[in-house]
Every structure is written in C-alpha cells, then in structure tokens.
Specification:
Blueprint: E1 5-13, E2 18-25, E3 34-35, E4 42-43, E5 51-58, E6 67-72, E7 75-82, E8 101-102, E9 107-113
Antiparallel strand pairs: 1-2, 1-5, 2-3, 4-9, 5-8, 6-7, 6-9
Length: 114
C-alpha cells in the first residue's frame, strides 16, 4: 500500500552556496517527487556555477516504491536514489557529499520506481 513520505535534496554551487529542496514522495511508481511549490521538478540556480548533490534524505524507505531515478533536462541519468540508503537516521547516506555535478539552470526531476 502506497503511503506518502517526505524527502529533501541539497545542492551546493561551486561558490559554496547551498540550495535545499523539500519534497513529498507519494510512494507511487512513475510519479515524481513533489516540491514545495507543487511542481514535480526544480530548476537549479544559474548564478552559483555547477551544482553538486551534497545530500538526499528520505523519512522512510517506502512501501510501494524502493528508489527514484534522477532525470536532468528530461534525460535519465546513471544515478538511482535508493530510499533505504538515504534515510534521515542513517549516519552515512548514499549521496552525502557526493561528486555528482549538474549544470547551472538544469531542470532536475526524481521519478519513483518500484
């Protein structure tokens, strides 16, 4: 049974600027994480250089979905976000201080998968 939960994405620009995004995750396959503004995607800032994923956190591991795919500018990337590896309670999370970099102004979307 699908039960919504929460998540967050944090990006850091090459100038040190940090941009956090807070999301609702519906736990329904093929649905996007929904951000505070109600959209299923975010546009990264253009004024802070390439953005690096510095953390992804989820409040639970999900019931109907186990992970999400990272899409940038409408193209699937080679990175999956596994909810159990990104739990807020984990001391080490999957994308904590990662080197995954995304171009300034890019459209970022996380699509849930079973």
């Amino acid at each position: 049974m699908a039960t919504a939960f929460t998540g967050s994405l944090s990006f850091q620009g090459s100038d040190g600027y940090i941009e956090p995004y807070y999301c609702t995750i519906s736990d329904v396959a093929a649905a996007s994480w929904v951000h505070e503004d109600g959209n299923g995607y975010v546009y990264l800032p253009t004024t802070h250089g390439p953005m690096r994923i510095i953390d992804i956190q989820t409040s639970t591991a999900g019931n109907s979905t186990t992970h999400a795919e990272l899409w940038v500018n409408g193209k699937r990337q080679a990175y999956d976000i596994y909810y159990a590896a990104c739990l807020t309670t984990n001391v080490r999370r999957q994308y904590l201080n990662s080197n995954v970099r995304i171009a300034p102004g890019a459209r970022v979307q996380l699509i849930q998968r079973a």
